[in-house]
Amino acid sequence: MSTRTLAVVSAGLSTPSSTRLLADRLTTATVEALPERGVAVTVEVVELRQHARDLADNLTTGFANQALRGAVDTVVGADGLIAVTPIFSASYSGLFKTFVDVLEKDALTGKPVLLGATAGTARHSLALEHAMRPLFAHLRAMVVPTAVFAAPEDWAGGDTATPGLTGRVRRAAGELADLVAGRPPAAPADPFADPATSFEDLLRGS
């Protein structure tokens, strides 16, 4: 059985959050689906709220610190990605978009991606199609057909999902598992691909 790595990006702002809850449901379903396709999986989770200050510093300085670089490398080096954001004003959150903005333009090319979103009302459900899907199409990611939206009424009691949400989660997870299982493992990230100090500076002793 071959092994793949799954990165999970959650842009929830609170602890606990419905965004992380949905991300966990999608992750569990994908982890259960992959062995059926002959693939073992390891999971790495990136909580963007922990990197909010790092992301702001990156925007103003142009450099990622060690913690943010680790998060970026996790996403770039993964064989598949689950990306979940809360929806504000009919679009993805600013925190989610900021993380996407610090990725290299070709970082997600061809990467299988499952999109998820949460909001306080089901009226925001189309944000997955008119905001998130075009964003990842621009990044040339391979987005699965089923995107999963969860409104408060989709959680029947506490963190228990309704049958409708459970069905959407399983369908989307199966689509992601098909894509991940059908691709060769991703090459590990090259730690020397973007050195903080140029080789010219090193030669000059800078």
TrEMBL record:
Domain of life: Bacteria
Region (Disordered): 182-206
Keywords in alphabetical order: Flavoprotein, FMN, Oxidoreductase
A Pfam family of this chain: FMN_red
PANTHER family: FMN REDUCTASE (NADPH)
Domain NADPH-dependent FMN reductase-like residue range list: 6-155
Entry keyword Repeat: no
Residue ranges the record marks as coiled coil: none
Gene3D superfamilies named in the record: 3.40.50.360
EC number: 1.5.1.-
Protein name: FMN reductase
GO MF assignments: oxidoreductase activity
